[in-house]
Design a protein that fits this description.
The chain is built from five helices and five strands. The chain is of the alpha+beta class.
Length: about 100
């Protein structure tokens, strides 16, 4: 699972994706416009001891948030969701098709 794919899906499906490591509570969010943010406020002055890339590799909970719903998926379910979403015709569209 890669951060770039979460960003693509967040933009295409117009959703926020919060990925979290439940054992530590560490979490990051990809906004609807593909911007990476802290999912929860970090205490002022506290050093950041993890990167989003580290957390995405160990995340076991994914919240998919749209205007209509909030769905919580486990890691395996999210991997399946990403695989299916990236196979969709919209995701498979090449840059050349956009310019025509």
């Amino acid at each position: 699972m890669e951060l770039i794919n979460l960003k693509k899906i967040a933009i295409q499906k117009e959703m926020q994706i919060v990925f979290r490591e439940t054992s530590s509570g560490r979490a990051w969010m990809v906004s609807r416009d593909g911007i990476l943010k802290f999912a929860y406020p970090k205490p002022w002055g506290e050093l950041l001891d993890h990167s989003p890339e580290q957390i995405i590799q160990t995340a076991d909970e994914f919240n998919l948030i749209t205007d209509e719903s909030n769905v919580v998926l486990g890691r395996r379910e999210m991997e399946d969701f990403l695989r299916d979403a990236l196979k969709s015709p919209l995701a498979a569209k090449s840059g050349d098709e956009d310019r025509e």
